[in-house]
Design goal:
Number of strands of chain A: 4
Distance between the termini of chain A: 57 Å
Helix content of chain B: 40-55%
Strand order of the largest sheet of chain A: 2-1-3-4
Largest interface: A-B, 23 and 23 residues
Number of helices of chain A: 10
Largest sheet of chain B: 4 strands, mixed
Strand order of the largest sheet of chain B: 2-1-3-4
Distance between the termini of chain B: 45 Å
Structural class of chain A: alpha+beta
Shape of chain B: globular
Radius of gyration of chain A: 18 Å
Structural class of chain B: alpha+beta
Oligomer: heterodimer
Number of strands of chain B: 4
């Protein structure tokens, strides 16, 4: 079996989703923690010269970058516990939502870096995005992948891993049982999955990390305070 | 009825590179389809809003009663539903990953940098935009060298996923060359891509859907004047 390495960053949802995929499939790998943002290793720069970002998966010496590309690669090389269904139409739906959630992730975190009116605007945006995800994406399913977690679930996992702690630190509640009942239920179901539960960064550590980030944002937003 | 016998339609425009991806893929598989043209400059139709409620964009592939959105997702769908030769995606997972990586780069970074040239105000901004864009082209020239393994296309002997993902932008690239007055694909920096571009545009699956550069340039002028609020030219 060829060697598998993953270059990641512990608070990053982009590397966490790759960890989840590898763990779900029982793939052994070496994890290399990158010291971001200022101390990227030479190996990382060599393996991802175009973007210089994590995550990067290296399999048998061959690097693959971009988390969604990595997830599809993992699903193809290790087909057990598939992330994508077999039917082409179902696959296109899964890919659509994985892409949608991935593209909306950074915009959804904007509320955390903003204050006052700008934050209100960002929160309003989030509600619209979450509405679309809940009604068009998840619908009545338990998971985006149906009865089992799939590609889009791993991508939306950031709702628990990062969005929820952001809500806590910023004092904002986005996904509530009465406003987004299905997403709220999804969060509980997803976090109870053994692979997810066992591979989750320490909540307090994430909160501390985010507190520093929010303070940095506040200082740059209000430099004279 | 066989899935592959159901009626196929493409909702799109003749000018969109993203729509072209879907059409090239269908052509490669010799799949007959109805091309439903949207007149996006007049607003989004009910039909479009119903077919792609999330993004309200073209292309949409309509296969029987199924709606598939997002051009690269459509291309993969086509390759999976009509698996007979020629294959659009490579069979090797690593090759597929490389192709998907570059396709994502094209959509996320490279094409937006091409559009920045058109939106640039003043000579300095334009120069900076062009420099950024050319950096990308040099990366793609290098990627081509690595992917092709001595063959004519990114996909090897025949056009494949990355050829489609990249080649669809050639019409707009040529329009940008015309309006900026600068050769973006050049013998000096991108000699292999120049030859690749000729081959791609001549391919049987491509030549009837690649828009004529002059027609595209006229269309671009029309859109630009609409954006500025001017009355459309009488044509």
């Amino acid at each position: 079996m060829e060697e598998v390495k993953l270059f990641g960053f512990w608070p990053s949802p982009f590397s966490l989703r790759v960890i989840w995929a590898l763990k779900l499939k029982g793939v052994d790998y070496e994890y290399i923690e990158e010291d971001l943002p200022h101390n990227k290793s030479n190996l990382l720069l060599q393996y991802n010269p175009v973007h210089k970002k994590i995550p990067v998966l290296v399999h048998g010496g061959k690097p693959i970058a971009e988390s969604l590309v990595i997830l599809e690669y993992i699903d193809e090389v290790w087909p057990q516990n598939p992330l994508l269904p077999k039917d082409p139409y179902e696959r296109s739906i899964a890919r659509f939502w994985a892409k949608f959630i991935d593209e909306k992730s950074r915009p959804m975190w904007e509320f955390f870096q903003k204050f006052g009116e700008e934050q209100e605007e960002a929160i309003k945006n989030n509600f619209e995005i979450l509405r679309t995800i809940e009604e068009n994406g998840l619908g009545d399913k338990k998971f985006f992948g149906g009865d089992k977690i799939g590609l889009a679930d791993l991508v939306f996992g950031m709702a628990i891993h990062l969005l929820a702690p952001m809500e806590e630190v910023a004092g904002v509640k986005l996904i509530k049982a009465d406003t987004f009942p299905r997403l709220h239920a999804w969060k509980k179901n997803f976090s109870e999955q053994p692979t997810i539960k066992d591979n989750f960064p320490d909540h307090n550590k994430v909160v501390e990390f985010l507190k520093i980030r929010r303070e940095t944002s506040r200082i740059s937003a209000h430099p004279n305070q | 009825m066989e899935k592959s016998d159901l009626k196929v339609k493409v909702l799109g425009t003749w000018s969109s590179p993203f729509v072209m991806r879907a059409r090239i893929a269908l052509n490669m598989k010799s799949v007959n389809y109805e091309f439903l043209q949207e007149r996006l400059w007049e607003g989004k139709s009910e039909r479009l809003l119903k077919s792609n409620p999330v993004h309200k964009k073209v292309p949409v592939l309509i296969h029987g009663d199924k709606l598939i959105c997002e051009s690269l997702i459509i291309v993969e769908y086509i390759d999976e539903v009509w698996p007979s030769a020629p294959s659009i995606l490579h069979s090797d997972p690593n090759e597929r990953a490389i192709a998907r990586f570059w396709a994502a780069y094209l959509d996320d970074k490279w094409f937006p940098s091409m559009r920045s040239i058109g939106f640039a105000r003043g000579e300095d901004e334009k120069k900076a935009a062009i420099a950024e864009f050319e950096k990308g082209l040099v990366l793609l020239e290098k990627a081509f060298g690595n992917c092709r393994k001595g063959k004519p296309f990114f996909g090897g002997d025949q056009i494949g996923y990355l050829d489609i993902a990249f080649g669809c932008f050639l019409g707009w690239l040529r329009v940008t060359e015309t309006t900026s007055g600068i050769k973006l694909l050049s013998e000096a920096k991108t000699p292999a891509l120049i030859n690749w571009a000729h081959r791609f545009c001549s391919d049987a699956a491509v030549k009837d859907v690649m828009p004529d550069t002059e027609k595209l340039a006229e269309f671009a002028k029309m859109i630009a004047s609409k954006r500025r609020g001017e009355a459309p030219p009488k044509s």
